[in-house]
Q: What sequence folds into this?
């Protein structure tokens, strides 16, 4: 048995990691909530964003955090364009097609990254990669604390956007009743594309917070997306607060089960939760009844 | 700010390699009347996951061939020059085998290299079908020499020799410091290499008065080692023995530095990072004082230090596999010289009876038993002030061990 301080610190570490999981899950849940599709290209897009952060740092010396105002708009526009001009038209109104298109996109992105950068692992080391903040007996990584704070801010902004702006109202209207929204004059294709763009922008931000402490290779997205799916299921499909809460819970469970069961076996905690949620509360913590 | 960039380095080195091959080949055409060059195969993984190590090895072999040719080639064969036939093992045993077949068709008299155990196992077996002498440079798996292949020779120490020396060296270093270290935590990757090594350490060390507090397994790759370091902090062991690959060792050392876990010593065995200059130059603070029991050149050997200077003068990094491959090519040239023939059976016979001592490693005279050089031994190194120093055994050391490190 470990002393309480160790267990508490493991939980804190888990919360900090969980905030990043939440950010990755945010885009996934948003796209699901509005477009009612699972975006299979989510992980590949994350890997692409991480390479972009790495590239800006390696090529131009841009700090990963300063990459956010550059990459978030770029990824928003990219996401918008992909949905508006590729996924939307190619779907021909059938959701089943969208699934296949995003799957194809993920293969395309992953292999383009592989061709461009090879399978090597790269990392970014900044001044704060090593620094810690002392919180009583706890030593918390500065980069992770920044990621936690940033993730909280982004979560709040998304929530405000959804609840207090006309764009948010339009997105929610399309999510609830596509035909009705179209009848009152909402451009559904535009709303779909905006939502997809927002999801991609969230990934760019997550990538910027991840890079100071993590590494990137073309297949790195998979490791996060399998967790993001669990987060989305736990929080409730399509719910922004659900993604935030789910991310934090999953991060903590992963950390504590890793402490007691070992790093290799610790992942089992996540999947036990996944199965329990599906069995006992299929709508998730914050999810509306389907 | 630092970045890890293989792609650029690899391309430049590939170009450099091609240029060297071209310059090696060109004089042979011009000379005409001189004796035919002797083709030797150099097999290294220079693309894929092991590309970094493959480059270190190839550079060593290239320098050795250039030096031997400059000194007059093989004198017993009228000064015949050595000619490199390079094969890229592409970091897989299958590609290694294909390259052996290609080298065989090109008429090489012997092959040197392989680097990773799986490549060495497959490539030496393929070479055995043609009775083609194969000198393993690094591959530590003892299976390589346990198969009884007459063509396969390993110049460097294998797993059994390395681990025995690692335990022995650790005990001696600890005794010399007045036996301060009593408790040990083992951090190992959960595959065959790491868990095998950890089990062996857990069985051996208690016989010598060490208490094993915990064996912590980590997956490769790991997203995060915070929990492992937290456990280490709560266990507070005197010694931490990591047997993990490059990425995880770097992550572990970085997280330990961040979490201020400062044991008396970090003592790695055959570790991918602890005696790698990339680790030392990118994370000097995390690497400082980390010890490793591994292959290393003899720092008191002037030929070795001058090779290091020549390689670093080109702006390249020097690693243990560079002098090891340099020495393996030297071993082969010596065997051809004594055999006075480029005939395969003659070379195998000369290798088996080799007493080659003019190498760069801390080994003494070569003596093969069933293909294993029994004179080979690893050394204990330590990162000191941003440099990798040999600290044990004393006859090869160029620094005193800084142990306990955080006193």
A:
């Amino acid at each position: 048995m470990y002393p309480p301080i160790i267990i508490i610190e493991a939980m804190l570490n888990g919360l900090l990691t969980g905030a990043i999981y939440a950010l990755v899950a945010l885009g996934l849940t948003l796209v699901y909530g509005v477009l009612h599709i699972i975006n299979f290209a989510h992980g590949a897009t994350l890997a692409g964003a991480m390479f972009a952060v790495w590239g800006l740092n390696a090529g131009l010396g841009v700090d990963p955090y300063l990459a956010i105002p550059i990459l978030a708009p770029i990824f928003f526009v990219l996401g918008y364009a992909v949905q508006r001009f590729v996924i939307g038209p190619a779907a021909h109104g059938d959701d089943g097609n969208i699934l296949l298109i995003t799957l194809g996109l993920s293969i395309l992105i992953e292999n383009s990254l592989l061709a461009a950068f090879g399978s090597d692992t790269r990392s970014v080391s900044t001044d704060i990669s090593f620094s810690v903040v002392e919180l009583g007996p706890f030593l918390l990584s500065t980069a992770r604390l920044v990621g936690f704070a940033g993730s909280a801010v982004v979560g709040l902004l998304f929530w405000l956007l959804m609840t207090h702006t006309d764009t948010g109202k339009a997105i929610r209207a399309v999510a609830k009743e596509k035909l009705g929204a179209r009848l009152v004059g909402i451009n559904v294709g535009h709303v779909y594309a905006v939502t997809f763009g927002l999801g991609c922008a969230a990934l760019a931000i997550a990538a910027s917070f991840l890079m100071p402490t993590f590494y990137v290779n073309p297949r790195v997205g998979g490791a996060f997306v399998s967790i993001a799916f669990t987060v989305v299921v736990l929080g409730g499909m399509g719910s922004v607060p659900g993604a935030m809460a789910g991310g934090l819970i999953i991060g903590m469970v992963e950390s504590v089960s890793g402490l007691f069961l070992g790093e290799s076996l610790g992942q089992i905690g996540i999947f036990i939760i996944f199965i329990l949620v599906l069995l006992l509360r299929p709508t998730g913590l914050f999810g509306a009844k389907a | 700010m630092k970045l890890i960039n293989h792609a650029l380095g690899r391309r430049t080195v590939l170009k450099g390699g091609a240029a060297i091959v071209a310059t090696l080949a060109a004089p042979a055409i011009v000379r005409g009347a001189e004796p035919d060059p002797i083709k030797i195969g150099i097999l290294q993984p220079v693309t894929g996951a092991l590309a970094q190590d493959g480059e270190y090895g190839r550079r060593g072999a290239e320098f050795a061939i250039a030096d031997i040719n400059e000194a007059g080639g093989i004198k017993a064969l009228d000064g015949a020059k050595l000619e490199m036939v390079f094969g890229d093992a592409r970091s897989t045993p299958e590609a290694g085998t294909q390259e052996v077949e290609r080298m065989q068709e090109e008429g090489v008299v012997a092959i040197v290299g392989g680097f990773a155990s799986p490549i060495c196992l497959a490539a030496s077996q393929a070479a055995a079908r043609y009775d083609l002498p194969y000198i393993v440079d690094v591959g530590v798996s003892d299976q390589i020499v346990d198969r009884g292949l007459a063509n396969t020779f390993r110049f460097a120490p294998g797993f059994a020799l390395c681990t025995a020396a690692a335990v022995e060296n650790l005990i001696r270093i600890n005794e010399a410091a007045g036996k301060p270290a009593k408790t040990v935590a083992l951090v190992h990757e959960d595959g065959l290499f790491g868990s095998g090594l950890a089990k062996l350490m857990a069985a051996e060390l208690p016989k010598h008065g060490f208490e094993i507090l915990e064996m912590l397994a980590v997956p490769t790759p790991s997203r995060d080692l915070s929990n492992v370091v937290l456990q280490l902090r709560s266990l507070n062991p005197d010694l931490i023995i990591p047997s993990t690959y490059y990425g995880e060792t770097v992550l572990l050392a970085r997280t330990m530095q961040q979490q201020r876990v400062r044991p008396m010593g970090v003592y790695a065995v055959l570790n991918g990072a602890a005696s790698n200059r990339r680790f030392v130059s990118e994370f000097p603070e995390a690497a400082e004082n980390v010890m490793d029991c591994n292959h290393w050149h003899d720092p008191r050997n002037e030929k070795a230090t001058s090779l290091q200077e020549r390689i670093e003068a080109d702006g390249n990094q020097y690693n243990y596999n560079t002098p090891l491959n340099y020495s393996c090519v030297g071993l082969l040239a010596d065997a051809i010289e004594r055999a006075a023939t480029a005939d395969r059976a003659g070379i195998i016979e000369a290798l088996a009876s080799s007493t080659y001592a003019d190498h760069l490693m801390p080994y003494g005279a070569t003596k093969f038993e069933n293909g294993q050089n029994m004179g080979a031994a690893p050394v204990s190194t330590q990162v000191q002030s941003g440099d990798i120093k040999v600290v044990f055994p004393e006859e090869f050391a160029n620094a005193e061990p800084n142990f306990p490190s955080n006193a």
